[in-house]
Amino acid sequence: MSDPCGLIIAAPRSGSGKTTITLGLLAALRRRGLVLAPAKTGPDYIDPAFLGRATGREAINLDPWAMPPEQIRALATQHATGADALVVEGVMGLFDAAADGQGSTADLAEMLGLPVIFVVDADRQSQSVAALVHGFAHWRPGVRIAGLVLNRVASARHERMLVAALRPTGIPLLGAIPRRDEFVLPERHLGLVLPGEVGGFETFLDTAAEAVADFIDLEALLSLAAPVVAEQALPKTLSPLGQRMSIARDAAFAFLYPHLLDGWRAQGAELSFFSPLADEAPAADADAVFLPGGYPELHGAALAAATVFHAGLRAARDRDALIYGECGGFMVLGEALVDKSGISHAMAGLLPVTTRIDRPKRVLGYRRLLHDSALPWPAALHGHEFHYSSAKQTGLPPLFEALDAEGIRQQPMGGQLGRVMGSYAHVIAAP
């Protein structure tokens, strides 16, 4: 079997159409019978769900800020093995990174040795596009822009002007997508909604696939894929929270990193799943319960009425199981959740915390986390925080001491009460 190959889809900035074109590309290639290994750069749960729907295969996260390079390469190698190509969607602009300058799509391209397909929004510019592309192409010698895709081209005349301007750059132009208003996915307070919540998503995907197939030279694009810089060792991951882990998974608890689940299984943990929204309890023999993030604030009434779920959590606590909640899971472990309308919903009551989202304030960024807790993980961790709700708690020891990407100390995060604990941080990896 040949070495796995791949490429990265990137753009000069957010809003260039990178996600839509990546989805169309994956769907178009899948229609041709290719097996794609989809991945997303950075700490994202929503885009991987879309990438997975487009390919019929689970997408993984490759995070060059939070993960060590050897973990990135091992995950990429493992994921791409047996596929025709690893296709990685970038994050923000090609060189955009955390506040410390680390973690960009360009960093990932260098770590994996992969070429970049550069998606440029041509709306409201013509010849200036050449200066933009030239600047990006020569900004960092270790990053190779191998091909260009123009998006939102206004007319045939506009396309001729762009093509002529770009010719001196020497970078192959793979295609030009006309401006199409139907290429818009709806958004919510945490970004894009999940694919199952998008009315007509399959129609959207078909439209995107047809546009990509009509306007992009797919054979030329595939020919640019390069071998992944491989790592044959198994991906290093965090230890499982217990030997028998029961994990909440439904529309309210949808934010799970595949690399953690795969790593826990590889270490011999038995994973089972349950739905709090269906009023299911965690497994009665679980020695650890994990409530991941998601959208509990959209399901306050249903979660408040889930008496079997609440009783199951209390039973797990009483038998001294480790109970850990991240972001939305942390909110549900508290006493109450105040939703966007100001209505208070009773939660599990395992931590003396009240969270509310009726006074939204966005908190976003990478976190360096330090802890001394029952979590079976290294004392130093890397994670990410993204939420609009806030938590009020009194007399509860914090779970994490926290610094941002630049090393600036933040407010302590979360809380712990015996072996029940949680915070707003989504833990990704150990540094």
Automatic annotation (TrEMBL):
**Record bears the keyword Nucleotide-binding:** yes
Q: Which InterPro entries is this protein grouped with?
A: CbiA/CobB_synth, Class_I_gatase-like, CobQ/CobB/MinD/ParA_Nub-bd_dom, GATase_3, P-loop_NTPase
Residue ranges constituting the CobB/CobQ-like glutamine amidotransferase domain according to the UniProt record = 246-429
| Family matches, as SUPFAM superfamilies | Class I glutamine amidotransferase-like, P-loop containing nucleoside triphosphate hydrolases
What are the site positions for Increases nucleophilicity of active site Cys?
Answer: H426
Q: Which domain of life is it from?
A: Bacteria
Identify the Gene3D superfamilies for this entry.
3.40.50.880, P-loop containing nucleotide triphosphate hydrolases
Sorted UniProt keywords: ATP-binding, Cobalamin biosynthesis, Glutamine amidotransferase, Ligase, Magnesium, Nucleotide-binding
- Which Pfam families does its entry note? CbiA (PF01656), GATase_3 (PF07685)
Q: What is the lineage of its organism?
A: Bacteria, Pseudomonadati, Pseudomonadota, Alphaproteobacteria, Hyphomicrobiales
Miscellaneous = The a and c carboxylates of hydrogenobyrinate are activated for nucleophilic attack via formation of a phosphorylated intermediate by ATP. CobB catalyzes first the amidation of the c-carboxylate, and then that of the a-carboxylate.
Could you tell me what this protein is called? Hydrogenobyrinate a,c-diamide synthase
